[in-house]
Structure formats: C-alpha cells, structure tokens
Design goal:
The chain is built from 10 helices and 102 strands. It is mainly beta and 1485 residues long.
Length: 1485
Amino acid sequence: MRLHGVLPILSSLLPIALAKNDAPGVHIADFKFIPWGLQYFDDSDAILFEDRTGRQVYRSADAGVSWEPVKGPEQGSLLELQMHPFNNERAYIITNEKTHWKTKDRGKTWDKFTTDKQASIFREALTFHAGDPERIIFNAMDCTGIFCEELTFYTLDDFAKELKFLRADTDGCHWAKSSEIFTTGDKAKDNDRILCVVRGRFSPWRKDYRVVVSDEFFTKSGKDIQEFEPELEPGRTVQGIVNLAVVKKYLLVAASAEGSDEMAMYVSDDTVKWHRAIFPHDHKLREAAYTVLESTNYSIQIDVMNTRPMNPMGVFLSSNSNGTYFTRNIEHTNRNQDGYVDFEKVSGIQGIVLVNTVSNYEDVLDNKADKKLKTEISFDDGRNFHVLKVKDEELHLHSVTELSNSGRVFSSPAPGLVMGIGNTGEFLGSYREGSLYVSDDAGATWRLGLKGPHKYEFGDQGSILVAIKDEGPTNEVRYSLNHGKDWETVELKEKVRPIQLTTTKDSTSLKFLLEAIEDKQDQPKGYIIALDFDEMHEGKCKDSDIETWHARVDEKGEPTCLMGHKQSYKRRKADADCFMKNEFEDPVPITEQCECTDLDFECDFNFVRSEDRKECKQVGALLIPDGACKAFGPDDTFEASSGWRLIPGNDCKRTSGPQKDDKVKTKCSTSVAAPADGKIKSTQATFSGDKFWNKQYLERTSLSTGLDNGEEDETVLMLTEDGVFLSHNHGKDWTQILKDEKILRIYPHTYFNDMVFFITPTSKVFYSVSRGDNIRSFEAPSPPNREELPVLSFHPKNKDWFIWTGARDCDSEETCHSVASLTRDRGDSKWKTLIRYVGKCEFIKEPERSMSKEEHERREKLIYCKAREREDKKPNNPMRLISSQNFFDEAPEVHLTNVVDFAAMFEFIVVATRDEGHSTLKASASVNGESFAEANFPPGFKVNHREGYKGYTVLDSSTHSVFLHVTTNNEQGREYGTIIKSNSNGTSYVLSLDAVDTDTLGYVDFEKLLGLEGVAMVNVVANYQSKNYKKEGKKLKSMITHNDGAEWDYLQPPSLDAEKKKFGCSGSLQKCSLHIHGYTERRNKGHTFYSQSAIGLMVGTGNVGEYLNSKADGVDTFLTADGGINWKSVKKGEYMWEYGDQGSIIVIVKDNQKTKVVHYSLDEGDTWEDYEFSSDEILVNDITTVPSDNARNFLLWGKKDGKLVTINLDFTGLTDKQCKLDESDVTAGDYYLWQPKHPKQNDDCFFGHISQYHRKNPKADCFNGRMIPHLHDIVNNCTCTRRDFECDFNFERQTDGSCALVKGYSPPDHSQICAQDTSVEEYYDPTGYRRIPMTTCAGGTELDISRAHPCPGYEDKFDKKHSASAVGLFFAIIIPFALAGGVGWWVWRNWAGNFGQIRLGEQSGFDGDPVWIKYPVMVVAGIVAVAVALPSLLSSAWRGIEGLLGRRRAGRFTTRDSFARGRGDYAAVDDDEGELLGDESDEEV
C-alpha cells in the first residue's frame, strides 16, 4: 500500500535525544513528497527509495538516519529502480531515455550505460542470471512505428560494453538459470541458455505465441534463428504460451487456448524434459484463477480457484518432487478477486503453513452469504491442519488478502517468532476490531500482545519486536524485548499515520524503519523514521543467555519429528537482558533425522483421505508407468500406487520391512483401455420424439483435460420433444438433464466452449460452466424477447459478462418491446438496464495489442446497439446505431440514424442505413470501432429500399476486405445478385461477380475455403439474361477463384466417374464442367465443403455437365485434395460427409436415405472402405463430429421404426499410435509437405510466395491427435506477375484481363497521400493497377509503378534522387523492390491490433485463416480511404513503415478493392428490413 505525493522536494534531519539505555534512538527525516519503494541492499545498512514526484532515487548509508539523492542520474528521468536479486551490491536505475545507471558498491557511486532502444514499459527492464551477476537481459521497445514493438538485448559484462541484440517479437525472456538452485545439468547451458516467449512463426495472435530456447543467443544463420521449440507435449510443441517463470528448482510454462479459460501448466527441472502438470480430477487450472504460492525446494504449491470470481474460494494443492502431479491439501481457501490467497509459510521452519479457509462455503456458493473465515495451521506442509489456540479459545488472523504492511505477513527468519492481527472466537472479525497476537513456538501456542490492530516487525533474530498502531494518527511506537510478554513505549515528536514498518530482510538488525505521512489531508509530508535499538547499549548475549529451541515438541516438552527430522535453533532466551548482535548472520537450523512413521505419508495423486483419515481412497484414474501394459494380456499387471506417497521434502529414514507406499500389482484390464485392435465400433441409442430440435457440441480445446477415466471429453447436447440429453463421450452414453423443465433452446457461449445456457419460456435461465454438468440457474430481468433477436450476447474475454435481450410490457402488441440488460457476474447480482426498445446489442472485441490500463478498461466495455430514437413504437421513430464505453451510465454516442441493421465482424462493423431523400440503401464501415465512413459502391451502382427486397448479405471479411452480396433480382424462386468486394477499410467496393445464386431467405451460394488463401466457390445463374428466364428457371454453374475474387473459373471435371466410366459431355469448360450443390440447398447450414483442419480437402455433391442438375435428376459425390484444382468422383449418388482427425479420416453416408453402411477413406479419398454400423437399415439425415474436425468419433442422426436414433462411430480402434512431427525434418516422420498451386501458373507461387503445409502421410499408421501447426514454412517470395495486381479504384477489368478506366469517371488522385502524410516524399501516377494486399511478391512486373512526382517540400531531395548515377539508379530501383517483402512483414506483425480491427463472428477470421491472409502487404489504405476514411490512421501507418525502413519512398496504393469483370448497367437493388445480412447476419452466412 503506497501513497504518492506531488510536492517539490524538501528534506531535513531532526535527531531527537532520548535517555540512553531506556529506549532506542529515534531519527526523523521529512520530505515534501512521499517516499516510495524502500529497498535494502541485503546484509547492509544501505537503503534506496524512489521519489515518484521528482523521478529520482535517494540513498541512505546509515540504516535510514540520513538521506541524499544519488549522484549521477538526473532528476526527472527515473522509470524504475531494480535491485540485483543475486548480488547484494548492485542496483540499476532505468530511465525513460537511452541512458541508464548502475552501481556496484551499494549505491555509493553510479556509472552510466547506454542502450540503442528505450526500456520496455510492458515488463521489468532487466532479467538477471542467478549464477553470474554480469549476465543480464535488457527488455526494450522500439516506438518508431505506429505502436511500440518489444525487442530484447543482452549483456555478458554488466553493460561494460555495447549491448548485443538478442531477439525481436518477444514477450519476455529469461535465463534458464534464473534461480540459484535451478540447473540444466550442464554447466555450459547453465551459463548461456535463454528461453523466450515469442510471437508465432506466421501469426501475431496471442493464441500462437510460442516458447523458444537458444544456447547461442538467438544468432542468425541466413534467415534462420538459432533456436528450437521444446516439445511440451509428447511429440508436439504447444502454442498459446501465456507466461514463463522459474520457481525454485522448477521452470513453469503456462499456456491457454481459444474457446476455453482452462489452462495447461508445463513443468521442467532441466529445460529438456517437459511434463504437463496433472491436477486432481475435479480441479482444473483456469486462466486468471490460479496462484503459484510460495513453494519449497522439493514441491510446487498452488491454489486453484474453484468458485465464481465475485466471491472467490480455492483449493490448496502440492506437487510431487518433480512438479508434475498435484494432490489436494485443503479445500475452501480464502482468495480475493486479485488472485491473492490467505497462505503463508512460517519462515525458516520446514513444513509449517498458515491458511484461512471459508467455513460457510456452502452458504457463500448457494446463497451468496458473506464469508466466515477460520485460520488453520499445518506442521506437515499442508497435509493435516489444526486450529490456532489462545489457551482454550480459537484464534483467527488476517492474512495476505488484507495486507497492511510490506514483506511477510506473520513471520521472519527470527526462529519461532510469529505475529498476526486477529481475534479469538468462532470466526475472523474485521481488521479494525483485531488485536496483535504473538507466538514464540512457530504457531503452536499464542498469546495476546497488544490490543488493537498494529503494524509489526521483528529484529535481532527475534529479540526485539516492534509495533505501531494501525488506526488513525499516533505518536507512540511500542516494542517488546521478551517475545511479546511485555511492551514498552517510545514517543515520537508528532503524530503520524504509518504506512509501513520494516527492517533488513533477515531480521538480524537492531535498526528499524517506519515510513509514515503527516496527519493532515492537504499535501501531507512524508516521513522516514529510523529506530536504532543499538543506542540502548545492551550487552551481547553470552552462552548462558542462549537456549536451544525445538521447532516441534510433545506435551512433555521433548522434541518431536517434523517432515522426517527434528529441527532446532539457537536463540536468545525470552527474558535475557542482552541482544544477539549477530547482524547479517542468518540463523542456522540444527537437524536430526527420524525413522518414518504414518505421519510422514500423504495420499497419492487421485486419492483422497477417508472420513476417519486412516485410508486413502481412489477417486481418479491410476497412473500407468511408461512402458507398462503394452501387450495387454488378460493377466498383465503393472506396479500401481498403494494410495500413499512419502510427503515431498520429507527426509525420514526408512525402516526394514513393508513400506506404506509400496507399489501394488494391478491388472492392466482394470485400469487402462485395451490397445487398438484395428476395428471400428458403433454404439446406438434411441429416443422418443419426432425431431432433433437442437444439437450442440461443446468441444474441448487442445489444452483441455479429458474425462475422469482418461478418455477424451467430446460433449454433445441435444434437445428433443422429451427434453435435453447430454453425452460426454460423443453419443456412446446419454443422460437426460433438466427433466422437469421446459427448455426452448440450448445456447452455447460464443467464446468459452465449456459454458452453455438453457433458455426457458420464463425469466429463469439454467446454465453450466462445466460442459453440461453442475447445472445452476439465475433469474433474467425478463422472459426472452419476442422479436427473434439474439437472447444472449457474450463478452469475448470476460465469460461472466453477457447481455440479455428480453421482452417487456407484452400484455399488448402496442407496448411489447425488447430491452437489453447487462450482468457482469453471471446473473448473481442486480442486472443493469442498458437500453429499451432495442434491436440488438453486442460487445465489440478489443484489438489484440498492448494497451494502457485505461484504454483496456474503456475498450472492454465497448457495446454497440441498434435502438429506437424514442422509447415507443410509433411511426417516424427510426433505429439508431449507438455505442457506449461505460455501460450506458452516460448518454450513448450516436453514430448513424435510419439504421436497418449492423454486423460486427473481425475487422469491421458494417452498417446499412436508409437515405430517405434518395430512397436508397447505404453502407458504412468502421475498422476501429469508433468512427464510421460511408462506403462507395461501384460506378452507377445504387441500392434502393423498396418493399420486398433482401438487400445485403455479408459473406466474409476474413481477408482485410468485405465480400457483400447484393440481391439484384428478388422474384421468388428466381433470386440472384452481385458480389462486390471492399478495400481494406470497408469503404470502397468494386464488382467481383454478377448473377450469384441466392434464395428467398438471403442465403447465398458462396463459400470461402478457410485455411487456404484466396479460394472460394460460388454458383452463378448462367441464364439470368435470357429472355425466357422466368420460364426456364435458374440454370446454375459452379465457379471457383484461386486469387480472392480476381478471377473466376469453371471447375475442371474428373475424367472418369466413380465406376471408372466417362461422363456424358466433353469439350470446353463452358459446355462441360463440374457443378456442386451449394449453401442454399443445405439442411444443416453449419456444414461446409471443407474443413479448416484438413487443408486443401473439399467434398461436395453435384454432376458433370453444362449446368447443375437438380437433386431429383441425380447427383454424385466428388472430392478434391488440392484446393479445387483437380476433382475425383468418389461415389455414385448423394452422400453427406464429415472429416475427422484433421482430415486423415473422411466418412460419407447416404443423404436422407435408409442405409446401414458408411464409407470411409484414410488416404485423402484415393480408396474407400465400408463399415456396417447396424443390422437394420436406418434413415440417416445428418452426420456430425466436433467443430474442429479433429475427433475420431462421429455421430449419425436418424430415425428407425418411428423413433429417433443416434449412432456413434468410433474410429479410435484403428490405431493407438500418435503421429510424430519433427519440424526440422518433416518427411522423416509421419508427415509430408504439401504446396498449394494456382491452376493457371506453372510455378507454385500463390499470392507472391510459396508456402508449405503439413499433411499426414496417408500410408502412416498413426493418428494426428492434438492440432498440428498446419503451415510449415514460407519457402520464398516470388517475382511479381499480373496475378499479383488488381484494378485500382474507378478502373474495371476487361475481357483481356487488363484494367480500364470506367467511362465518365476520373482516375484517383494519388497526390492526396502527400497531404495526408507529410513524411511521404513522392507518389506515382495512377496506372489502373494496385497490388493485391495478400501478395508478398517483389520485383518482376510491377504494374503499379509509373512516373514519379515529388511531394511538396521534397523537390530537392526528389531531384537529387532521380538524377543519380547509374549505380545509384540501380539501388534506387532495386532496393525498394527487395524491401517490399519487409514492408509486408512489418504490416503483418502490426496488423494484430495496430489498425484497430474489429474481430467478431463464428467461422471466418484471421485466427483460422490462411496465414498469408493474416499479413497482407498493405502499406496504406486505398485512395478512397485517404479521401474519406481514417486519415490519421493512414498517416501514422506510413510514418511507422518509414521509421522501420529508415528511408522514404512513394507509397503503393494497395487496398482491398475487388475486381471488375465488365460493368454494364447495374440493376437497382432494394432492401427488406429485417433481412439485412441474411438471418442473424454473420452467424448464418
């Protein structure tokens, strides 16, 4: 707890003379600011503190008696003061500039050192080596761009010479030897090994952060960095690294995954072998819900929150000796919302722990009652606990969650001395009503020391106890020289308010420091008061004054064993008239080993104590030793735990004979699943009812734990007329839940897969945070709305925050309306009304970049709503788009009026509004969530809003642009429209493709192949211009693009059908091509042609011919394994399909027909096998698996004999061997590298580069298991060709592929970039072309380069540059081309949040997109954007790139415009309110 002053500095020293021998000396220093961060140089009287007002450092050489500013560092430059943790003579003053200061003589003198970059503000500037004080890591930042980028440097000589560059894109680096007892086992590695958390290889998103290791300081060899990524999982590296820390002898790495707040913790004791820490079956590690406690040299201790965060409680767990398996010690520990836990070890005494637990935990959980706390103590590292006693009364003490002083709460190195503030009675009372209690036997017994709350401290190894009242102003300091039995008083000159009372870390000094402030509210002075007990001139203790104190004794006072040994200390007798005066000498324990007894053992992993505490009962799966149970014969056994283990750190002496922890022979068949037998299995279940109304998967993430029996948790929920059913094993076993409740809908959380809600017709809502288990409920403020609006809208990061849209005043149609309400505690407390007469409300996702605390708090509260201007339903009451960043506590910001609807997607918020004056529909877009710019449609393109038209459907926004479908013909059964595509900020649109098929509901035959860059498929109405169109009806053709809409082509048909026969057509693709039934015809809109985890694979049903046949005329099933270039016919007839194990399994089944057979392929569709899943035929109407397509289980849904049926298909029996992936030599393992191609190019260049993806070798007998990183490498960039460019704004594509100016329109004015960014030196004349943002090409045919012109003010520099010599001209041209890839790289690195994108939606988005889409080579936004949208964003973007390259050059205008294919006259497009963006916008289409 600290206060910060704001006054100029003024200090004085006022010594007070007191009678010698009667009291300690008192020396007061006052300052016109409040000192901050007192820090001792260990084993000395030298102290430093920070003046946060003047931003400088003060030093005392005499234990706080006198102070002066340190000499050297200038006032006003201090950023932070860091003490060297492994050398007690060194400290560092880090400034906000590039000159810093260091001391090697405890602050007496300071030497300056310089760095190339400023110190990072995101973490501590320095990270230290525990074995060599000269080795230091410097965490820096480069702020020359739009946002600050983190860089890391290092020194091997304590900054004596110039810093050396370590690595970029870091998120914290550590020496492997960051703790004195940690070792890699290799001296050279102990010296040099460094671990860093870094960005993903091809992604800036946090979900892809990695941990990398280097023994060569990350030096580069060519383009490769000398580093490796450790396998945290067997055979797998892990992404999503959150943090890295060294705790005692353990190295810990925490990882998270999208879709869950469950975390994984990986442990190593040598940086080579890693294990995932395994927690008891009912305690999972959750993000922001666990605390690593003060651990021991032999065990990691951790507290895991297992309740709601608003009133948190936890469970205290301890690991085994290698940190991998944790067992529970005590439940219901008290925590606060900041993650602090009421836990402390007694210093210097092994095994003694004090905790506070919640006695009334059930009332706290069920009835939200206030906590009733009890204090308990353990003498065996938390295995058994006892209450504290003052005589016969229970004692309870305030602990870490209510810190009132610095340092440890209860103890110090003073042997056996413990103090605390608390009260006797049944429970812990308030701090203000507490008193000071003292124990001199390490907490075994207690006595009252002083009444009232006090700050306290220990000195002279416990001979001196000092305290000062901690309530209101006081001028009295109390001290005791006999272990707290009696207390004396020393008076101060004036009353002060104490801030902290402290002394040296080892509590051996006779000198104490009291930090306090003046007793007045207005600009109080700060004080540092030195108390010197050496001035009492007590004698030094003799042998007769010393006692041998035993840490644990029995009723007779005889020493007893604690943690396998007896432990004793030499200390001064309580009533001795002397001081120890062993300053800076730590007390040394005396130990004697004991023989092992039952008290030295605890329950092993997944065992818990019986009620009588005499046995350990198994509650989870047994651990199988490596190599055991491989043969799995009927009599095979393994050595299993007896249920007991020796307490880690316990060093008791084993006796002869049987041991309590002896292993027990156990049959393999009772503990592990049988090995793979090469067979597929099926499990059938039947249900009454007519229809599966709702089915939802709650998929585990790659880091989530499985079921208690060790199986994978693949949770499925379904709703029928009979109710809700739950399965945790993918439909093998079902359990009905909520039997007596009427459930309307199963509503999974959008961002947290473990959380699901069950909506009823009333305001009562049921929910589960554990995948359908442990169901609870809350009362919503009203029943669900009646306007078919989303009932729940979730926050992307805070899982307990959500918006409920309910119905109010629905006694009549005239008054019935929807109201949006907010909860931030999952409905526990009162709801907040946000807005009435609402259309919908959504949280807007924060950008993924470093933000200040204030900006983060503002952005995480950002909500957008569509709501009526007035609170009524009368005419002329338009909808408005409004937003709030304070939960509507103040009037909202109004962005747009006459709003039809809005869609919040990844980078964009797209809004449709009516222009009543011109009877047209307009679109606006925002890329930063705060400001909007109106969209410009292609020349001559107008969108009317006459009654009956469907308007827009937002198709995709995953490639830095918006694909919009605009319905141009709305005649029922004859609908079609135009796809237009935007630039990078959603404001400028160009035609991509005409006559694209749509249906009455606004669904469109468009599908983007996520995971593979630039590939999409559509169906077009080929005869839309026919005079007989109404009579003929739609004649559809399928088309595909391989360059993000620049060119569309018909699908190449296979040469033979599934029966090896030729098709009945031939000739050009115009007359004979492959056609695939699209999105508008799917019963289940969640199904897709592709799988994002099966790169390049697609399955569809259709035919080969001139047009797409109706399904009644017969269709076949086709498959492609190369992204749609080549197709093969796999089965005659119409089949449904699903992918499993990331595409290594493909399963197909007859669509909505009776069958008893499925067909499957294990080799990317080359061969197919049959599996009979039933003896009777079943009408199958759906096949599903987990959304990631990574499971080896599938579910068939159908009907048999009038009943509903599910059939689980289990392919796990085919193999139990997990594939091995070695990134350094992929083809040597179970994978091969696949390179996508463009069908019209001879090389493998795709958007200016060659990329390689991992695919499982079809011949490998193994399974993928956890998600593999699909992209292996960017092999190289290519030279530019025509396909790397698109038409510039106001230009359109011609039939020969060239770009021509639209008649009647002018070329864009490129000179505007000079006005928008004054750092730009030159610009080019428009050529009609600009680079496609995804391309990374360099050199070659640069169609956007033309005659250059100087920007105003740069004429001289321009002339000099363009009149260069031949050599100079060579460099002026070639170097910028080579740097284009660097610009693209920089933009990719910064795109993650630096352009303020909005990223919402379910399927599309950067997080799941091709990595090249994630970093387009976009220097600035388009010319239209320069004119009308986000000018400040563009100028700052250019300045950032200029700073990166260290030179200036003309900007490329490479925005995300689409490609015109011949314009003609556009048809008018109308809108029907309520159908904008399709039904429920981006959720559906």
